[in-house]
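quick q for whoever's on today - can somebody do inverse folding on this one?? i tried earlier but teh output was garbage lol. tokens:
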């Protein structure tokens, strides 16, 4: 929770600094929302069986955008953290995300901008392979983390659609856990071992650099009154290693506004990265399509 608080305070501090720019108040646009979604059930002497349950999810989405003459600078942060508590069992994580994006654009022509795009992605807390037990740690803060920086061109037709094509993009993958790095998780080089003794002679790399191309497309539209659809698709190809294998990150969110403080949300997140190995119930490992869907109803406050 300390990491969540620090991130929120840092972004709010940035917002306050911008708010003090009185010379041209229309250059900056700020906004977002913070929410808490939950569901709960309690059973006592329930003949049909079952157990007490509590599920909760906290979210924060906020943006600070600048536009003046030929320059624009779009910044956004999106964080989420959720857990499920079933009976007396240990809480299970159901959602965890930190994503920061920043894009500077210089107008080249109508609706076209030369762009420099930055992104940072990781998560707050440890993740476990719950198929086996809750002690097998497979991820955590900066395990992994993805940092990208790319130069390209953005097309932005309106506030509802934009696409950024960056043919020169560097991406750094960080695995801040030596045990997982030794296994070569998330595409880093694994540890080296002596063929005869099995003793480790070189640690696995805790980072990996890639150079390639990235495409990021964003669609944000109103479907009907009080129902909004947001979709973000990111594609990345590494020029140096299997460029034909495209990494896919596709996030979708439908927000249904019930009233000024109550929302219902449906989110779907699809990821494919051939550098990430997934183990199935039979113990087989390999790259697989990852998918997550969340339906939630809860409180929301517009910032």
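ok took a stab at it. sequence:
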């Amino acid at each position: 929770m300390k990491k969540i608080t620090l991130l929120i305070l840092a972004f709010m501090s940035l917002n306050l600094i911008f708010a003090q720019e009185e010379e041209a108040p229309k250059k900056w646009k700020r906004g977002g929302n913070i929410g808490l979604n939950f569901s709960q059930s309690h059973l006592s002497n329930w003949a049909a069986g079952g157990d007490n349950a509590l599920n909760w999810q906290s979210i924060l989405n906020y943006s600070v955008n600048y536009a003046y003459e030929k320059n624009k600078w779009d910044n956004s942060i999106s964080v989420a953290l959720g857990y499920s508590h079933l009976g007396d069992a240990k809480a299970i994580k159901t959602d965890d995300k930190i994503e920061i994006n920043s894009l500077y654009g210089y107008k080249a022509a109508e609706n076209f901008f030369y762009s420099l795009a930055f992104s940072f992605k990781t998560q707050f807390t440890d993740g476990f392979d719950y198929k086996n037990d809750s002690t097998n740690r497979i991820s955590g803060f900066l395990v992994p983390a993805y940092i990208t920086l790319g130069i390209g061109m953005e097309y932005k037709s309106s506030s509802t659609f934009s696409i950024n094509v960056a043919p020169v993009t560097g991406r750094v993958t960080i695995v801040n856990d030596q045990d997982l790095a030794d296994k070569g998780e998330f595409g880093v080089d694994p540890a080296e071992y002596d063929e005869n003794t099995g003793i480790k002679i070189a640690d696995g790399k805790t980072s990996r650099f890639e150079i390639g191309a990235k495409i990021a497309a964003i669609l944000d539209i109103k479907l009907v009154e009080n129902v909004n659809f947001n979709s973000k698709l990111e594609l990345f190809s590494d020029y140096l290693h299997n460029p034909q294998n495209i990494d896919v990150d596709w996030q979708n969110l439908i927000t249904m506004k019930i009233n000024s403080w109550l929302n219902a949300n449906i989110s779907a997140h699809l990821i494919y990265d051939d550098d990430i190995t997934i183990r199935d119930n039979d113990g087989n490992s390999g790259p697989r399509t990852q998918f997550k869907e969340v339906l939630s109803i809860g409180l929301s406050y517009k910032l």
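fwiw Residues 142 and 176 are 6 Å apart (CA to CA). also The chain has one domain: 64-74+95-302. so keep that in mind when u check it
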